[in-house]
Amino acid sequence: MSPIAENLQEVKRRISEALQGDRRAITLVAVTKTHPAAMVREAHAAGQRDFGENYVQEAVAKIRDLAGLDATWHFIGTLQGNKAREVSEHFDWVHGVDRPRTAELLSRHRPAGKAPLSVCVQVNVSEEATKGGVKPGEALALARHVAALPGLAFRGLMGMASPSGDEAAIRAEFALLRRELEAIRAAGLEADTLSMGMTQDFEAALAEGATMLRIGTAIFGAREPRPARQGAA
Ligand SMILES: *Cc1c(COP(=O)(O)O)cnc(C)c1O
């Protein structure tokens, strides 16, 4: 078995252990940012189908390279308005929507022949200034806006816990995201996705109700620093 296949198997074992018999469906998004297309192929050969990318130029090159592979592409980076067209044309999901304008651009540029773009609204549950996301309490308004746009399908919420290493704080942040999603459902919107949990904290995320995990390092190993030329997303 290849190292990537072994790592995938180990991550899946940890996921089922963390679920403790709960049978809810979990989507594992393998985060391939900075890694070459060959590593995506290796994961695909091991059965992986969902892939996450952060940087538009790098991602679009890889998606083109891998055209023909049955894969679902998730944009999980910070999205600038001037990249919305490329993202909407090439990706299946966007996890980081945190303003109405971005949602409008994604909807407008969604190619007519494609299914609506699946969108998660990002909530800044750790309230760190450096992180994107709407404030807790503002997610419902943006979710309604997304749900009303023809090119988009509102799917749920995405969040990142603080990198504090403090288990109780991390659990509280994930719990906050889950309650935000519950409030959105109570308001009558359909939503099936709670995108939370990375290599460092996915077990805590699962304990708080995650349905989608975004995991890079545990599958592909540590990332090299990004080459300077690739610039901003
Ligand atoms: C890079 C990244 C991940 C994956 O992080 P790992 O720690 O490598 O698992 C998940 N989510 C987002 C938004 C990321 O930018």
What would you report as the Rg, rounded to the nearest angstrom?
17 Å
> From N to C, what is the helix and strand string?
HEHEHEHEHEHEHEHEH
Strand order of the largest sheet: 7-6-5-4-3-2-1-8
State the helicity in percent bands: 25-40%
What is the CA–CA distance across the termini?
34 Å
Low-confidence stretches: none
Broad CATH class: Alpha Beta
Structural domains: how many: 1
Q: What would you say this structure looks like, in words?
A:
- The longest helix is centred in the C-terminal third of the chain and has 20 residues.
- This protein is 39% helix and 16% strand.
- The chain is of the alpha/beta class.
- 42% of the residues are buried.
- The protein has 9 helices and 8 strands.
- It binds pyridoxal-5'-phosphate.
